[in-house]
Design brief:
By secondary structure, the protein is α/β, with parallel strands linked by helices. It has two domains: 101 residues, Urease, subunit C, domain 1, CATH 2.30.40; 294 residues, Alpha-Beta Barrel (TIM Barrel), CATH 3.20.20.140. Strands 1, 2, 3, 4, 5, 14, 15 and 16 form an eight-stranded mixed beta sheet that branches. Strands 6-7-8-9-10-11-12-13 form an eight-stranded parallel beta sheet. Helix 11 links the parallel strand 12 and strand 13. The radius of gyration is 21 Å and the shape is globular. Bound molecules: ligand MCF and fe (iii) ion (FE). The site of fe (iii) ion (FE) has 6 residues, from loops.
């Protein structure tokens, strides 16, 4: 692939924004430097000049989305986690049946147009595999494991393994990586849990789990009471949780994973996640709609990813929309610093959680790049992250592995 030099007013690097610089890349980023310097270093390169007020960023990474639930608009009930979960069970078959490839492709396309070059797809059934194989984006394909009863554990594990194996057979032209998602502490039997974590560790697969999302979940795991008691009595004829918070959490101690939601964690649990090298994925709009509380991001020392969750608990799959919502939800704290932290949460920190070397504009990183063009000059350099976050709906151009896809 021939070398390109992309010149933009502002570039988001791992050290923050730099101005009046350029990036030289083929499939990989070669250098970040002054335009004159790069043109003499790469005299054959094609020069790409972007319009005034253009910001160059790493491609955005949405670590957590449920494509198979993309048909939902108004069917699922919001306002309380248990009510939502019951509505998922009631409408699941019909929602999944309506969610054909065209629906999922549209979801993936809107993500691409908004600048998402890589997403983590939580696959409950394997119905999204074809779409994930075909898309130009990178996909971490999280095969979901679920099953709380010992009686059905073997069958469910077998089904999970089959889907996982299926996702291993990829063409070199596809950008899909197989991975494992453990649904949640309340829904996965400890025997299945340890088998799946051992497998992820053995095969070095990205690993993810929903964790301490709702107050009901915490109450059920601690005291076997609350909203989940009625739920488990009704659907499973049981009245005891299969695991405890500590047992579940410690099962991940020797393999870093992506812990999604964590809205009901304690300070000590959040510290433990940080110590063990885990990443926390934050889905502020989903949390609000399912009444799960606010993740205290000011108390997180672990790397933070911000993700949309699925259309099962959101109205869009745009990370720009998600970041704007996060900025409003976390209404205290320095605005400029928070905006920069959020941009890092959808690039570098998200990449690490998905075992990717992208998410950064730095030499040797894969050339996953997007440009967004603001309509006017940003008066103060300290506000570039904030103003970009406030005003962007779609990317102007998108490169994945150096190839222009939009
Ligand atoms: O992240 C949200 C809320 N928490 C848990 N699960 C899901 C979410 N969106 C979709 N889900 C899926 C989940 O993957 O819904 C099912 C699972 O397959 C719920 S369990 C019947
Ligand atoms: Fe989710």
């Amino acid at each position: 692939m021939s070398v390109k030099i992309l010149i933009a007013d502002h570039i988001f690097t791992p050290d923050g924004f730099v101005s009046d610089q350029a990036v030289a890349f083929d499939e990989t980023i070669l250098a970040v430097s002054a335009p004159d310097h790069l043109t003499s270093q790469y005299p054959e390169a094609e020069i790409v000049r972007t319009p005034p007020h253009t910001v160059l960023l790493p491609g955005l990474i949405n670590t957590h989305v449920h494509l198979e639930f993309s048909a939902n608009r108004t069917e699922l009930t919001y306002g309380d986690f248990m009510t939502w979960l019951e509505s998922v069970i009631e409408h699941r078959d019909e929602l999944v049946a309506r969610c054909d490839n065209a629906t999922m492709e549209a979801a993936v396309q809107t993500m691409l147009r908004s600048g998402i070059t890589h997403f983590g797809a939580i696959s409950s059934f394997g119905g999204d595999l074809e779409v994930c194989r075909r898309t130009p984006q990178r996909v971490t394909y999280f095969n979901e494991l679920i099953g709380s009863s010992a009686a059905t554990a073997d069958a469910l594990y077998g089904d999970f393994l089959e889907r996982l194996n299926h996702s291993f057979h990829t063409d070199p032209a596809e950008y899909i990586t197989p991975a494992i998602a453990i649904h949640a502490p309340y829904s996965v039997h400890p025997v299945l849990l340890s088998k799946a974590i051992a497998l992820a560790k053995e095969k070095h697969l990205p690993l993810s789990t929903h964790f301490l999302e709702s107050p009901h979940e915490r109450e059920w795991l601690e005291s076997h009471t609350g909203g989940f008691l009625g739920f488990f009595r009704k659907f499973f004829g049981t009245d005891r949780a299969v695991t405890s918070i500590d047992e579940f959490l410690h099962a991940f101690d020797h393999y870093p994973a992506l812990f999604v939601h964590c809205t009901q964690t304690t300070h000590a649990e959040r510290e433990h996640l940080a110590e063990r090298g885990h990443t926390i994925a934050h889905c502020p709009r989903s949390n609000r709609l399912l009444d799960c509380g606010r993740l205290p991001i000011e108390d997180i020392t672990a790397p933070l990813s911000i993700a949309t969750d699925g259309l099962s608990s959101n109205w869009s799959l745009s990370l720009w929309d998600e970041l704007r919502a996060a900025l409003m939800l976390h209404h205290q704290g320095d605005l400029e610093k928070m905006a920069e932290r959020f941009l890092r949460a959808v690039t570098l920190d998200a990449a690490r959680a998905l075992h990717s070397d992208a998410g950064r504009i730095a030499p040797d990183a894969p050339a996953d790049l997007i440009t967004v063009t603001l309509t006017e000059r940003v008066e103060r350099d300290e506000q570039i992250a904030l103003q970009t976050l406030l005003h962007t709906q779609e990317a102007a151009t998108v490169y994945i592995q150096g190839k222009k896809v939009l």
